[in-house]
Design goal:
Distance between the termini: 51 Å
Bound molecules: N-(iminomethyl)-L-glutamic acid, fe (iii) ion
Structural class: alpha/beta
CATH class of the largest domain: Alpha Beta
Number of strands: 16
CATH architecture of the largest domain: Alpha-Beta Barrel
Largest sheet: 8 strands, mixed
CATH topology of the largest domain: TIM Barrel
């Protein structure tokens, strides 16, 4: 009789044991419980010391003290080193689907030619458009995959990728089909965005005419093929004027798309449109005025800053400190592209931004994780908490402050995507 009870008890215990426990981690910086908007101090960070994470079916089941969690997990993976664990990074703004180099542009820029001047003379973005249009789908696929492999090494497991080097209905479709294909078989989750409104299509003279063709012909194809539900526009005199972008965003909204805006990079204006159309994010903001900042802070639009573009162009950083103090939700992304931001190392860029703009570790990591996820409309990642995706990165150190201190030199040693080791 007693034996039966013992057997039953053992059986019950076994069925309660589930998931895989990873750890111990010197520190787990969960980034949970923090506000979506405004400034953050490091003492607001929730840190589990000597921690462990139980992962089940790709999501986090429990976080706690490693020793205590050992009793609850079906499997234990002991890591045997000092590690700091945090949510994997989200890069919410990239142009990674391109062919060719723009080293010659860069050389011209550091010899004092401006980005806008190069573009005006048919170079810059147009140069990449020519090379990307010449590339086959297979070639683009290979280039994109290689860059995403690098993203994983940088700790990025969710990455937005824009088109915008096609600039015709067919070529934009080609780029977006490549992005979709790669998303199907790469470990990183991709979020595609259509940036046909990057600059005027080379076959057109009139921006309004060009965008009319894009909205009439490309928008329905995007929806039909399930390529993207996001539309972006570069608002700048050299790209699309405030008035033309206004009409285009209105059409995109009417057609049911989510929108995002390349805003206030060289001149102010785009962020106002982003707010008008309730964009998911307004990105760049290097030239935002105090009025723009106030408006952004009073809106749900994520203010995405792109230090890689400031570094690539030798320009001032976006006013991230001011944006946070005003109450904005500030995300940090790479803008990785062959022209203005060729580096593409998110952590290095964020560390430099934080040094110059005086962002706390909490603000910087928030900008790389849950605040960036918000810019993509994703609420299932960016924090480590029960029920969230187990997208996690571990650094070989015992103190999270070492990460920004090394200014990008300390890279993640381990990367998990949906609970399984991706690096
Ligand atoms: O976000 N500013 C517009 N578009 C990109 C650059 C693209 C390129 O130069 O190829 C950016 O900086
Ligand atoms: Fe960009």
């Amino acid at each position: 009789m007693v034996d039966i009870y013992i057997l039953e008890a053992v059986k019950n215990l076994k069925t309660q044991l589930s998931g895989t426990l990873y750890g111990p981690f010197e520190q787990i910086v969960t980034l949970d419980g923090l506000p979506l908007k405004g400034p953050l101090s490091d003492d607001q960070l929730q840190i589990q010391s000597k921690g462990g994470v139980i992962v089940e079916n790709g999501t986090i089941k429990e976080i706690g003290e490693f020793v205590a969690l050992k009793e609850k997990a079906a499997k234990v993976k002991e890591l045997g080193n000092h590690y700091v664990l945090m949510p994997a990074f989200v890069d919410s703004h990239t142009h990674l689907c391109f062919a060719g180099s723009r080293a010659h542009d860069y050389a011209a820029r550091i010899s004092c030619k401006s980005y806008q001047e190069i573009l005006k003379h048919g170079g810059g973005i147009y140069d990449t458009v020519r090379k990307t249009n010449e590339a086959t789908e297979d070639e683009l696929l290979t280039f994109l995959k290689e860059r995403l492999d690098a993203q994983l090494r940088y700790g990025v497991t969710t990455c937005e990728v824009k088109s915008g080097y096609g600039l015709s209905v067919d070529q934009e479709l080609k780029q977006l089909r490549v992005i979709k294909k790669v998303n199907d078989d790469h470990r990183i989750d991709l979020v595609a965005t259509c940036l046909a409104a990057h600059v005027l299509g080379p076959d057109f003279d009139d921006p309004s005419e060009y965008l009319k063709v894009i909205s009439n012909e490309l928008f329905p194809a995007l929806t039909k093929e399930g390529l993207t539900n996001r539309i972006d526009v570069f608002v700048e005199p050299e790209a699309f004027s405030f008035a033309v972008a206004d009409q285009y965003l209105s059409k995109a909204r009417q057609a049911g798309f989510e929108v995002t805006v390349h805003a206030d990079q060289f001149t102010s204006g785009g962020s106002e449109l982003a707010i008008k159309y309730m964009a998911a994010s307004a990105d760049h903001l290097e030239s935002s005025s105090d009025e723009d900042i106030k408006r952004l802070a009073n809106s749900p639009v994520v203010a995405t800053v792109l230090p890689g573009a400031s570094i690539g162009l030798g320009m001032n950083y976006a006013p991230a400190r001011k944006l946070l103090d005003a109450g904005c939700c500030v995300a940090i992304a790479t803008d990785w592209n062959p022209g203005s931001a060729p580096m593409g190392d998110l952590l290095t860029q964020a560390a430099l931004l934080s040094a110059y703009e005086k962002l706390s570790s909490a603000e910087t990591f928030a900008g790389l994780t849950f605040r960036a996820a918000k810019a993509l409309g994703l609420t299932d990642r960016g924090v480590l908490a029960p029920g969230k995706r187990a997208d996690m990165i571990a650094f070989s150190t015992a103190d999270y402050r070492e990460i920004l201190y090394h200014q990008g030199k300390l890279k993640p040693k381990l990367v998990w995507k949906d609970g399984s080791v991706a690096l």
